[in-house]
Write a structure and sequence with these properties.
5-stranded antiparallel beta sheet, alpha+beta, 14 helices, 3 domains
């Protein structure tokens, strides 16, 4: 095709040239060009034939290559499908293992957090401050604890179990009750109790600080009994030592027990003093009543025996004189009053005796109603203190909120102390009032019994008349 185009161009050029040089030259040139074009056409055909042959050969090669590649493609596609299935299975297995791993990770971290909270309050942590770093590594959020972290956590627990059954004596530092660093002898009993002794002999118990890395002294000192036991143990002379199995709650009360009575009463506010006054007055009245009633009970039998002896002998004048001399005793006053009605009927004698007994009842029951009132007033004053304390507490909450419990402790103390004190005063008063009331009833019953005996003695001596005899005499 290219040769034909070239031939046409040459032909056109020659045609143009022929116009200038003449037809002869043009004819010769055309013949030459035709001959050359023929030769070129033959060459072109040969080239095309060779190219067709080469293209055919290459086409066959390409078809064979395509067939081979198609076969390879099918093989690879089958392998790919199998790999997809394998990938899906592995993804499912990976998801299951990831869930299991997440569960294990959560369990380990939860256990590590519990261990951190526990070791913050453990007495053994100040001896092993490296525990905090170990737990911090296990609790790193971006890192799985791994087998090493699990092994370290297990080691901490096993060490703590071993420490719970051991007794350790050492010299160490701690924070004293004054907030200053101290150094002294330390004794740890398992994981329950740790105590100290300073060079000056001061004894006390220890508990961990809020961070758990140091020990601090518990406010207050043990009593002399505990101090003696602890000194013997520190000196190696004893094998007994006080242990607090409540994890510090019992020894923490030492600070409260060190408070004096006045401090405790002062926490109750002004209403504590009226309650104390009620208790003092009630106690004074109870003592007076016990003394008076016990004195009456002791002399009543002796006086009555003497009176009956005089009655049996008919010594009426001596009997009246004796009752007058012993008029400070109710029995004698009643008998003396009854003697005025000798020679009357039995009904008159009994009425005279009952009249004398009724006159003595106010003296016997003296202050008992007052004690009853005081027993009722004491808890009411305590209740008033409770209401006052709660009002103060709510006022503090209104002004400062609930952020600082110490701000509310004053009102709560006032509410609780007054109630406690009021009940502590009222209950004994009620019990003692009942005891005194029963004693008065016993004395009255005894007097009635003696009055009946006195009436019988008068009847035997003929000093009690029948109504018919009195009517006849009249």
């Amino acid at each position: 095709m290219k040769h034909a185009i070239h031939t046409l161009i040459i032909f056109m050029a020659l045609t143009a040239g022929a116009q200038a040089q003449g037809w002869d030259d043009t004819s010769k040139a055309v013949n030459i060009m035709v001959a050359e074009a023929g030769q070129n056409a033959a060459k072109t055909k040969a080239i095309i034939a060779e190219e067709k042959k080469a293209v055919g050969s290459e086409k066959g090669t390409l078809k064979r290559s395509i067939s081979e590649k198609q076969s390879r493609f099918n093989q690879l596609k089958a392998q790919y499908d199998k790999l997809l299935e394998r990938e899906a299975a592995l993804n499912e297995e990976l998801a299951a293992q990831a869930h299991e791993l997440k569960t294990i990770d959560g369990t380990i971290r939860t256990s590590a957090k519990q261990a951190r909270d526990y070791f913050h309050e453990s007495l053994t942590t100040p001896e092993h401050p490296e525990r905090a770093e170990v737990l911090a590594q296990v609790l790193q959020p971006e890192k799985f604890p791994g087998l090493e972290g699990i092994r370290n956590l297990l080691t901490l627990y096993l060490d703590e179990m071993a420490a719970s059954g051991s007794v350790v004596r050492r010299s160490g530092d701690f924070i004293g009750t004054d907030g200053m660093d101290k150094n002294g002898e330390l004794v740890r009993i398992g994981t329950f109790t740790e105590a100290y002794r300073l060079k000056d002999g001061t004894l006390g118990f220890l508990r961990p600080t809020s961070e758990g890395t140091k020990l601090m002294a518990v406010q207050g000192e043990p009593g002399w009994t505990l101090s003696g036991i602890m000194n013997d143990f520190f000196d190696g002379k004893g094998t007994v030592f006080p242990v607090d199995i409540s994890n510090g709650a019992a020894f923490a009360r030492l600070a409260q027990e060190q408070k004096g009575v006045w401090e405790w009463l002062g926490a109750g506010g002004l209403l504590v003093w009226p309650i104390i006054l009620v208790g003092v007055v009630a106690m004074a009245l109870v003592i007076e009543r016990f003394y008076a009633l016990s004195k009456l009970r002791g002399t009543s039998d002796r006086n009555m025996n003497k009176i009956l002896q005089m009655v049996s002998k008919g010594e009426w004048k001596q009997c009246r004189e004796f009752c007058r001399e012993q008029s400070r005793f109710p029995t004698c006053r009643i008998i003396g009053h009854t003697l005025k009605y000798m020679g009357n009927t039995r009904e008159i004698i009994e009425n005279a005796f009952q009249e004398g007994l009724l006159k003595e009842l106010p003296m016997l029951e003296r202050f008992l109603p007052t004690l009853n009132v005081l027993a009722a007033v004491a808890p009411l004053l305590g209740l008033l203190g409770t209401v006052t304390g709660m009002i103060n507490t709510f006022q503090v909450i209104t002004l400062y909120g609930t952020g600082d419990p110490r701000m509310m402790s004053g009102g709560i103390s006032e509410a609780l102390v007054t109630t406690q004190l009021g009940l502590a005063v009222a209950v004994p008063i009620m019990i003692l009032h009942h005891v005194l009331e029963r004693r008065v009833d016993t004395i009255i019953g005894d007097m009635e019994e003696k009055g009946t005996g006195f009436a019988v003695a008068l009847m035997k001596k003929g000093q009690i008349k029948k109504r018919e005899e009195l009517d006849a005499a009249a």
